[in-house]
Design a protein that fits this description.
single chain; alpha+beta; 5-stranded antiparallel sheet; disordered N terminus
């Protein structure tokens, strides 16, 4: 809406200027036409245009044509001024030159230019008037010009002087009025702009390269009214601890074109301002000062919350690590004594007691696995887990895990196979972590594979790294569960299957792979099985390409 109103005002102003110029030319042309008619009647009763009426007819034609050209923009107005110069020169030449009664009409082009109410046309009008006078004077010097009748000469002179004076005065008054309105309009725009600048939320400054304040607009963020900041040094308004930083920012803006800095104002130690600097030229720098107290408070609050969360997380990890150590001591005793009882080392036991000992040992083993997983995860989260890297044959580690899981696979009725290269596959990794990765993946695969299915463990070199794949022919994983797996304590499957795990297995696999600079990916189809792939850049380069892998079944 403000743009529409401003456009309407500009159109109205242009229409007013156009209307005044048309009226000026039309009145002057009609007056000259009446004068020509009167001169013709006075001489021979309108029988012909004589030496007195023809010059006025030329002036009338210039006026009427000028009224048409005045509305055709700058080009039309320029042509109108030139026509006035030509008409004035002709009229003077036809009535005795610059000494004749119509010599005053040489000033008519200036009046016509003034009627357009634009300073740019005044110079053209003055030049056209001088040109008309010069042409009339040259014509009088080179030729014997006609002279009007003595009876009409005074009347012609009176008409020329009156019309020129009135026309020139009207044009100049119109020009002055237009300039006065333009000045008032510019003053209104300046006041409106200043009001906007004074009430916008940032303190806007123009500075010298040395930091002296040249102008200031906006709120009093630097401890004083903006108009009182002029000629003061910006660094004088900055807290002592930040003066050097602000001075360096000024130098950077003068050198590089822009800079930003934050500082505390000298008048308010608790305040905080942000200063953005932009080079405006060789001698000026533009600056915008913004109150950043609330933003700094929010950032400080977020930082405190982050530190608190990190401390709480570290405390949780320490607590879990300490508790895991505390729980393992009595748990080892429980498992040791239950193992002695189930092996009947000190004599026979009743069948029911032997069953109880077996259940105690199995539960203790499960609890120990859970404690070990929690301990490892807490160390990883606390960034306290350190890899014990060594060179070893990956086949040995995988074979040991498969041998350990053989009994569980046989009890579940699942075929456990390995696909390993016949030659040594040396890697530089943490042996225990690699065993834990394989153990967790095989344990998960056995848990979700029904009787009669199979689990295959594949280790191979791929792209300069180790690729470990554990694939099963189980029930598969739903897409919704795939998105969650790999995060701590997230599990898939039904309630019975979830009871047999802690939800840390895959998250530990991912964490161990990440510690080795690798990654874990899962591919699964519901009813079609699952394949978990771990890729780690731990392979020790081999001189020869590995031969075909050997397949074995546990």
């Amino acid at each position: 809406m403000p743009y529409v109103r401003a456009t309407s005002r500009r159109k109205a102003r242009r229409f007013g200027e156009h209307r005044f110029a048309v009226a000026w030319h039309a009145v002057f042309g009609v007056a000259a036409l009446i004068g020509a008619a009167g001169a013709a009647w006075a001489t021979d009763g309108f029988s012909s245009l004589g030496a007195e009426s023809a010059p006025l007819a030329a002036v009338a034609a210039a006026g009427l044509l000028g009224a048409v050209l005045a509305g055709l923009g700058a080009t039309g107005r320029t042509v109108a001024v030139v026509l006035w110069a030509a008409a004035a020169a002709v009229a003077c030449a036809m009535t005795g030159g610059t000494a004749g009664p119509l010599a005053a009409l040489c000033l008519a082009p200036m009046g016509a230019a003034a009627s357009f109410r634009k300073r740019a046309f005044l110079a053209l009008g003055a030049a056209a008037s001088v040109a008309a006078a010069a042409a009339a004077a040259l014509a009088g010097a080179l030729a014997d010009l006609p002279q009007p009748s003595p009876e009409l000469s005074p009347w012609l002179s009176l008409f020329a002087i009156a019309a020129t004076v009135v026309g020139l005065a009207a044009g100049l008054i119109g020009l002055q009025g237009a300039q006065a309105r333009e000045a008032r309009r510019q003053l209104d725009v300046e006041l409106e702009l200043r009001e906007i600048l004074d009430h916008q939320p940032q303190l806007l400054l123009t500075l010298s390269p040395a930091g002296r304040i040249l102008n200031a607009f906006g709120p009093p963020l630097l401890g004083g009214e903006p108009r009182r900041l002029r000629d003061r040094q910006l660094t004088d308004l900055v807290a002592l601890d930040h003066k050097v930083a602000v001075d360096e920012a000024l130098q950077a803006a003068a050198r590089d074109g822009s800079a930003e800095v934050s500082f505390a104002p000298a008048h308010d130690a608790e305040g905080w301002l942000e200063l953005s600097l932009t080079r405006l030229g060789a001698s000026r720098i533009g600056a915008a000062v913004r109150d950043a107290r609330a933003q700094r408070a929010r950032e400080a609050e977020l930082d405190r919350a982050r530190q608190s969360a990190e401390q709480q997380n570290a405390g949780k990890s320490r607590f879990l690590a300490n508790m895991s150590h505390e729980l393992r001591t009595p748990l080892n005793a429980i498992m040791g004594f239950s193992d002695i009882m189930r092996q009947r080392l000190f004599g026979p036991l009743a069948d029911r007691y032997a069953e109880y000992a077996e259940l105690i040992h199995e539960s203790g083993s499960h609890l120990l696995e859970l404690i070990n997983d929690v301990l490892d995860m807490s160390k990883i989260e606390a960034e306290r887990f350190e890899l014990a890297r060594e060179d070893f044959d990956v086949r040995d580690a995988i074979t040991a895990v498969v041998r350990l899981m053989r009994g569980q696979a046989e009890r579940a009725g699942v075929a456990l196979r390995t696909v390993l290269p016949p030659e040594a596959l040396e890697i530089d990794a943490d042996r225990r972590a690699l065993k834990q990765i394989t153990l967790n993946l095989v344990s998960n695969a056995l848990k979700f594979t029904p009787r009669g299915g199979s689990v295959t463990v594949t280790a191979q070199a791929s792209g300069g790294g180790l690729e470990l794949i554990v694939a099963d022919t189980g029930m598969g994983i739903a897409p919704a569960d795939l998105e969650r797996l790999g995060r701590p304590f997230e599990q898939a499957g039904d309630a019975e299957q979830r009871k047999s795990g802690s939800g840390l297995g895959l998250s530990l696999v991912r964490a161990f792979a990440t510690l080795h600079g690798g990654e874990m990916s899962i591919e699964s189809t519901v009813g079609g099985g699952t394949a978990v792939t771990v890729r780690m850049p731990v392979l020790i380069s081999q001189d020869e390409a590995p031969p075909a892998p050997a397949v074995s079944e546990a």
